[in-house]
Please model this.
Amino acid sequence: MRIKDRLNRENLSRGASYIKRNGVVPSFYKAYERLIRDEDEKDYMKTSDVFDEIAGREQRELEENRKFTHNYRISIIVPAYETDPEYFREMALSVITQTYTNWELVIADASESDKVKFVVDAIRKEFGERASETKLKYIRLPENKGISGNTNEALKAATGEYIGLLDHDDVLTENALYEVMEVLESGLINKGLSYENNIKVIYSDEDKVNSDMSKFFDYHKKPDFDIDLLRTNNYICHFFVVRKELADEVNGFNPEFDGSQDHDFILRCVERLERSQIKHIDKVLYHWRSHINSTATNPDSKLYAYEAGKKAVMAHLDRLGIKAEVTDTLHLGFYRVKYQVSASELTDIKIMSLDELKALSYDEIKEIEESYILILNDNVKPKNPEFIEEFLGHLKRPEVGCVGGLVISKNGKIESAGYKKDGDTMIPEFAGLNRHFSGYLHRAKLQRMVDGVCTDCMMIKKSALTEDKKMSPDYIVVYTPYSVFKRA
Model:
């Protein structure tokens, strides 16, 4: 996207608002980084665009004829309110034309007008049995109960074993439910006369689409389940599929968090699950409608949603008994979780170099009195005095075995913001990025799970070390950008 394409009223107003909150320098780098990403994505297209017509027909036929062990009914629930008829129709057709056919589309319409109902009636007439009252369920609500209340009405009417969340003007790819079913097939457990399924939650990658569906952009490649990242931002968003029993157990959507009701709902669902019960499909199955040239002039009008998101994360931590503070970052809708540490806990740390640790036997390590080992080599220097407190806050969590921070190279660029495993090799993430940039979807500057961290400056939980002095796979590794180190 060229610079002139970004110069619309919405982006200019958003830029002015960002400058007011964060200052000129951060605003400059944010805009600069956004333009670079636009250039990188200029040739992006959704996968289906590169299929030829014959291959597309053959693939659809294969998916339609696929035999699953258990054909789960998937209920797509959609709250509607005065939705643009064209957008609503495209959303509904994206469900009706799915290659997997055991679905129901449940619409809870709180509109004052009949515009949504007219579209439903027209679709039923056009598609007949495929859009019958048992497939396309339309509920006209007597009053507008808000986004959470309206969604709960759709949830109550859903009869499927799994629920899928979809916005009223967005669209699914035609193979979205087929891909969900393939994952569910892998989670089946044979109980003799019946099957159970260990998989309770599924989500996919997504992108955005403009008003006439002629341009796809902002591809969001999501990681496998990452509770740290989810606490900083609702990266899961839609398309979110959840076991109906679980959705009912958490009592659906809470109006207290309207604006970020999905974030709250997702947190309440996943906090009851093991990581193995949450699956990520690394394919775009959901197109989020976005108006690139919108004339909206008040980007701060959704500040209530960001506040609701912060409240949702805080409520989640409270339910788990985790003492922490949730604060805003430079980027609206993205948060920092600062885990509380007491003064006495800061004395429970042994500081040494990596060579010292390597020289110790496993038995000698076990004899160390302190519970945590801080590795700090001479070739890096901490840039913020509270880095130890930040490390320890994460390491106190029972699931965390190691934590590391942001490392800046001698030339002032990012050397590593965590490491990602590629086969047998550990690759430093965001290496070479301008230190003022936040990286892909701000992840260089967000707390998140990683495969590894810089071994020159990290903290390890002593009990997480195995006899070969490696970290047990039962623990996770966390990266935090709030502990910063400069290469000496």
